[in-house]
Prior knowledge:
- The chain has four helices and five strands; from the N terminus they run E-H-E-H-E-H-H-E-E.
- By secondary structure, it is α/β, with parallel strands linked by helices.
- Strands 2-1-3 form a three-stranded parallel β-sheet, sandwiched between helices. A two-stranded antiparallel sheet has the order 4-5.
- Helix 2 crosses helix 3 (72-81).
Amino acid sequence: MAAKGLGPDLVLSSSSARTRETFALFENALGEKLEVRFLDDLYHSSSILILNLVQNAPSDVSSLMLIAHNPGMHDAALRFLGDATGFDKARLDHNFPTCGLAQFSFSGPTWQDVNFGQGRLERLVFPKDL
Length: 130
């Protein structure tokens, strides 16, 4: 992510020890201090909660990262994609492993416009790809 310049403006992360460790490694690899909010609700989050968090992101944030857990993250990623097809969609249908990265773009002008079925999968990286 650092090599591709994918540092987010804001990170919303589960407050679990494992996600805190993941965030610390990510921030260290980027070599910059990131704004992060650790949220207890992301520990057992549903895709609906994840969508709600995205829709309520601050308007000055242009890039948002979520660090959470399955099955909520997997379900949210699939629901953002909707009816998309292709190789990455097939991989995502099958699995969303720990430390997997799914990068989406959305065409709406604000975070409030983001909804399921509207995401364009820009990048899908699984640990075994590295």
